[in-house]
Amino acid sequence: MQDRPPRSQSNPRQKPYYRRKTCRFCEDKTLPLDYKAPHVLKDFITERGKILPRRITGTCARHQKSLSTQIKRARIMALLPFTVHD
Amino acid sequence: MNLYEVMFILDPDMGEEEREKVLARFKSAISKNKGDLIRIDDQGLKSLAYKINKKSRGHYHLAYLEGPGAMVAEIERLLRIDENVMRFVVVRQEEHVTRADLERTASVEEKAEEKTPGGEEIPEQAETGADNAG
Q: How many domains does chain A have?
């Protein structure tokens, strides 16, 4: 899906090259996926506090599932915001 | 018997004496319901991500228990009744976690702290990827 080869920059109609995203929790087994580690979860929410989709972060299905659970727990415990107002 | 993790936030404005009482009640509820307290950590005052009961700070506690499922219901009831408990969450530990693990686990935050510096790169790249995909 996201692993197209690099192409020439001269043709504007061609998609530019971008690196394939990988699941950070698969890459780094020591990275805690836990509601008690909100600074890790922070990378996976928007500035407004919404959960970022897999398509943006590259997280695998299994980890995204547990990620969303952990973010929701962290919200309950006021470690992460439900929403960020202006 | 299952292993559980209980995190709860106590009112930061209550006295030390009262806090001891709440913890004592918590402990006796565990033992009365055939459970066993493995460890309880006082994580100190932390600022909350949003205000709860008009307070912007809370006194966080993290406890690990072993006990039957019926104990959990009883503990949840107790925590819900107590007005000094601002929030709580009970999480059952996965099968592979052993009691010994919980006895010695350092808090997750500390371990994770070392990891964070490299963590800022990915979301940014992801953002550009999304623009292209759209």
A: 1
- Sorting pLDDT into bands at 50, 70 and 90, what band is A85? confident
Distance CA B29, CA B34 (A): 9
CATH (domain of B76): 3.30.70.60
Mutate: best of B48, B102, B109, partner A, most A CBs <10 A:
B109
Which residues face B58 on adjacent strands?
B46
ipTM of the complex: 0.71
Whether B116 maps to a domain, the answer reads: no
Residue A70 sits in a domain whose CATH number is 4.10.640.10
Mean per-residue pLDDT pooled into runs of 10, chain B (134 residues): 93 92 94 92 93 94 93 94 94 85 61 43 38 40
Q: Per the CB < 8 Å rule, is B109 touching A36?
A: yes
DSSP state of A44: G
Enumerate the residues of chain B whose CB falls inside 8 A of the CB of residue A56. 123, 126-127, 129-130
Inter-chain Cβ pairs, chain A and chain B, closer than 8 A: 87
Q: A49: domain range?
A: 25-76
Q: Residue B90: which H helix or E strand, with range? A: strand B85-92
